[in-house]
Structures are given as structure tokens and as C-alpha cells.
């Protein structure tokens, strides 16, 4: 039983098919089929039922699956144990939300890379709606994202790095106190602080101004700085513009006015040394307001 066979088996289950597993792993589909056949020969029982294009685990496959992840993790643990005190190394895949990718992570990456040159970071945008499944499949080792303060998940191990206040912003020539005639730029519906914005709009009462949904913080900022309207954004995303006078801020006056910046990984994940170090370095910003 080889480690690559176990990885292939787990990937087929996680992504839902031989072809998708081959694409994920960079194998020819025939190689994936061979790995499975070798496993089934060694186990002396079928692990998958192949029903046309649909692949499902047999009862034996279902019993085998929980042990596969443990064996893969044990393999990596044994490698690290042999390496002992060598310089931390390896590839770390980090999923990051758009706002942190642009405004927050670039401040952290240079110092981390200088301190740990043998750790290779692969930074990818997260699919926010499916982040738990992506962590379970192993798409990312860890994710960094923005959510409302106090966010929790039963399937993930979560660390709160810091919090950032939500502020109402307008152009330097416009915002003193927002009026009912002004256009409001809303984040897309999947945005974590969209409900806070909707609460603010409801509290503000009847309005004659338009509400326009925009897909990103950067597009929202540009519209606001062009005096086209106002918006509600995390302070870390507009700090520079407020400090240099390009944007003015106003308090929103509602209870849920902070968002948290979190790290998360699957609760069953074994932590390689490179991930442990990454989390420790990130914790240095814990409790610092952005």
C-alpha cells in the first residue's frame, strides 16, 4: 500500500470522480484507475461501485475511508520527525478573501518569506460560500477571511486575529452627515457584513436615493471617492484614504459594528510544521485593531 494510492483514493472521494481526481492530482486518468485497482487487489475487495459516470463507495470503501486520512497524515508526521530540527520547509496553500488579499496580507507576506525562505506560499482566492468543503477536500491548508465578530463553526478550528470597525465613508467633498438622497453602494449578498449594511439602511428610514450593488471593495471605494455615493466598509480597507483626506468617515450607530479577521482550518487536519509556524506568525497581529 503506497502513499500515492491513498492520496488518489481520498481525492476521488473528495472531488467526486476519477476524472476530477486526475485533474486535481495532475495524473493521467489511467494512472488514477491503476492506483485504485492496486488498492482493491491488496484489500481483496472493491472500494468503489462504478455506475456509469457515477462513482460511489462500496461498504468496504466507506469503512476504509476514515483510516486513509490518518495514514496520509501519519506519513507526513513521520517525515517531519525524521527531519527533526531542520529549517521549516514545504508548500503551504493559503486561501484568502479578496479584501484581505488586497489590503492586509501584503503587509505580512514579505516579513514571513524573509524569515522562512524554505516555506513556499501558494495564495489563492477562496470561494466564500464553500470554504468548509474546500478545507475538507484539502484545497487549502488554511484560510484567512472576514466575518462578523463572534463567528463560529463546528467543523473548523478558528482563531480570531483581530477586529476592524465598520465605518460609513463618503468623499472628502461630500460626507458630513449622510442624507436620504445619497446613493448607497452595497456589497454583494455573499459579503459577511451585508446584513449590517441592510440594518443600517432600515434604521435610516425611508430613502429616495438609489442603492447599487457592487462586486468588490475596490470598485466601491473608487465610486465613493468620485463623489457618486456612500458605503459601509471595514476600516482596514479605507484607512489610508481616510488618513490622507480622500475619504471621510461617519459612525454607523448600530450594535454590530465590528468584523473579525479569522484563520480557519479543518478540525481533523494534522498541522505540519510550516502551518504551525504560519499560524504563530499571524498571531503576532492578534488583538491589534485595523
Automatic annotation (TrEMBL):
GO terms for molecular function: DNA-binding transcription factor activity; transcription cis-regulatory region binding. CDD domains: PBP2_LTTR_substrate. Gene3D superfamilies: Periplasmic binding protein-like II, Winged helix-like DNA-binding domain superfamily/Winged helix DNA-binding domain. Keywords: DNA-binding, Transcription, Transcription regulation. InterPro entries: LysR_HTH_N (IPR000847), LysR_subst-bd (IPR005119), WH-like_DNA-bd_sf (IPR036388), WH_DNA-bd_sf (IPR036390). Coiled coil: none annotated. Pfam families: HTH_1, LysR_substrate. Residues 1-58 form the HTH lysR-type domain. Belongs to the LysR transcriptional regulatory family. This is LysR family transcriptional regulator. The lineage of its organism: Bacteria, Bacillati, Bacillota, Bacilli, Bacillales.
